[in-house]
Write a structure and sequence with these properties.
Order of helices and strands: EEEEEEEEEEEEEEEEE
Number of strands: 17
Oligomer: single chain
Strand content: over 45%
Shape: globular
Largest sheet: 6 strands, antiparallel
Radius of gyration: 22 Å
Length: 233
């Protein structure tokens, strides 16, 4: 997510999404080899699943098994509306965008774009998924886990969600507009990824010995260590 409009856009002007299957637990749409599933979880929550190519099933570690709520799927001129008791989800077949509305018709949040690109990690083929939502200027977003930078409102803030010492990454944001988003993806995630990359080059190497307090399984003690640093430009 980012600032006003978050992420990248990919639109196919020659093809439209089609309704492939409507089941008790989900609705499936297709565009070429890309699938989109709308899966109602509760009367005010819907899981959105996008996949390209062969989608591998992984153990479910987040969602608890519950009775699927009743829903109504209605065809419109430019798409479909999935209606629950407290939530309406509108899907556009022309560009694949999803918008969420209250039962009274007020827009809660809407996608700007969604993109799945081929990539590789250590020689293994995979995909990079980018999801973009519109965020108004008066919105505040909270969450993403436990970080040491002192920020509470993360709207417009760039963060890489990684697990390290004193840092806990939770891919969930809560908006002051009254909704929450869970990014249920086990891959490395960048929130509001930067639009440009700065390449650093090593120009030198140095270091100094310092004495620090160390706490370990052996108890507290003082230890002399060498702190290394690199000069970059």
């Amino acid at each position: 997510m980012a600032g006003n409009d978050l992420g990248l856009s990919s639109t196919n002007e020659l093809q439209e999404w089609t309704l492939e299957k409507q089941e008790t637990e989900q609705v499936t749409f297709r565009l070429a080899d890309t699938l989109l599933k709308l899966r109602p979880l509760t009367n005010n929550a819907v899981r959105v699943i996008r996949s390209t190519g062969i989608a591998h099933e992984v153990p479910e570690l987040v969602y608890l098994p519950k009775k699927v709520p009743d829903y109504v799927l209605k065809k419109e001129k430019d798409g479909y509306i999935l209606s629950l008791k407290n939530l309406n989800v509108r899907f556009s077949v022309s560009d694949g965008r999803i918008s969420f509305f209250s039962s009274g018709g007020k827009e809660i949040v809407g996608e700007e774009a969604s993109l799945i690109e081929s990539s590789s990690v250590q020689g293994e083929k995979t995909y990079v998924s980018t999801q973009t939502f519109h965020s108004p200027f008066d919105e505040c977003l909270y969450g993403l886990g436990q970080f040491q930078d002192g920020y509470l409102n993360v709207r417009g803030l760039t963060r890489r969600l990684t697990q390290v010492n004193t840092q806990i990454a939770i891919p969930f944001v809560m908006s002051n507009k009254g909704y929450g988003l869970l990014w249920n993806n086990y891959g490395l995630t960048d929130f509001n990824p930067a639009s440009s990359v700065v390449a650093l080059q090593k120009t030198g190497l140095g270091g100094n010995k310092v004495t620090v307090n160390v706490t370990s399984t052996e108890g507290g003690r003082r230890k002399c260590v060498k702190v290394m640093y690199s000069r970059v430009s």
